[in-house]
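Let's see one such:

===
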Amino acid sequence: MSKGTETLLVNSFIDGVLDPEKEMLGPVRDGGHIIANTAPGCWGPMITPCIRGGHEVTKPVFVEGAEPGDAIVIKIHSINVTSLATASGNDAPVDGRFLGDPFVAVKCPECGTMYPDTVIEGIGQEAIRCANCHADVTPFVFTNGYTISFSEHGDVGVTMSKESAETIARDGRHYMKTPDASVQNPIVTFAPHDLVGVVARMRPFLGQLGTTPSRPIPDSHNAGDFGSFLVGAPHDYKVTEDELKEHRTDGHMDISRVRAGSTLICPVKVPGGGVYLGDMHAMQGDGEIAGHTADVSGIVHLQVHVIKNANLEGPILLPNEEDLPYTAKPFTEAELKSAHAVAKQWNIEKLEESLPVSIIGTGSNLNLATDNGLQRAADLFGVTVPEIMNRTTITGSIEIGRHPGVVTITFLAPVGYLEKAGMLDVVRGHYRE
């Protein structure tokens, strides 16, 4: 008999490191629901040295029945922004305030304390102070930044003037609606205002969604691009290239199509899977080219389901149909009628039936990420990389998730391939909804 709960409410966070040895929340039943109040990612954790990763994601959830080699299907039912405002922009690390990696190993430049606790003294980019010696300890500053406030309708945001940004900065936790258990310093404290009066459309999504890696990895580095910073690093979380490949689960994707209505199929590398989420963004174009976007708090509703013996090397995304490239959309009845006419003319006895999939690839640059995604797709379906390249060229597209090294290999996959891989019911069900 199942011991898992049907619906699990999640409102607690990790210290920036995804550690498979730490106790998980749950268990939640196979087919059960996870409802989470997420904390902002990126900039808030980046200016909070006691968080040992670039994000503050939720504590992982144990999914009943999930074992290494399985996959967890995560259906995103809803994503709702709760922040009233946030701040973001390009970053520049501050020399002398970290050990090898400013996202992971912050060091006070005055007293030398590693991962120091901090206090906020005033507003602006010098407001984050070491709790021990009160030195300016922020490891990052803005090169060009903005404060953005959101419409009560959740449709647009508008960037603020200096006066408005400073008003928001003085009551940061209120405007960002950071969850009670979150320890991050609100980034609006910096009051950036280089862009004023810019209007941006909102379409929230999760920059972090996935399963726990099989060794401790900082949450922001659980991918092939940011993870490459850990290779040979001078701090506690260093790895080799082979270890990174073996243990990561690519939960940090920053793919704007990971939004309400989409489905993500994730590899399981530890018992229970350890589903975690966070780094909600209010909006973003492909690539997140500024390095950061509008990080917000929010409420997320997920539903999880276990696929046995999937043996995935990385995540698979099933986007909303409207988010698919033109060439990868399911065919209309009129298009199929035309295709049958061509087939009849040339004595082609049977047309291939297919459905869209997006295979995630990551690497230290976009070329390596593309190679990684193509190989994962070929391995999943037991075919050659050149075949996947042809299918992606004429029935799909390579799309950038995050610059420098996250892509989606999107194409129409034959239903026979999907059935053999144990994915057909999930993919067909997603596009019938």
User: Anything to note?
Assistant: Residues 2 and 209 are 25 Å apart (CA to CA). The chain is about 20% helix and 30% strand. The two ends are 30 Å apart (CA to CA). The chain has a mean pLDDT of 98.
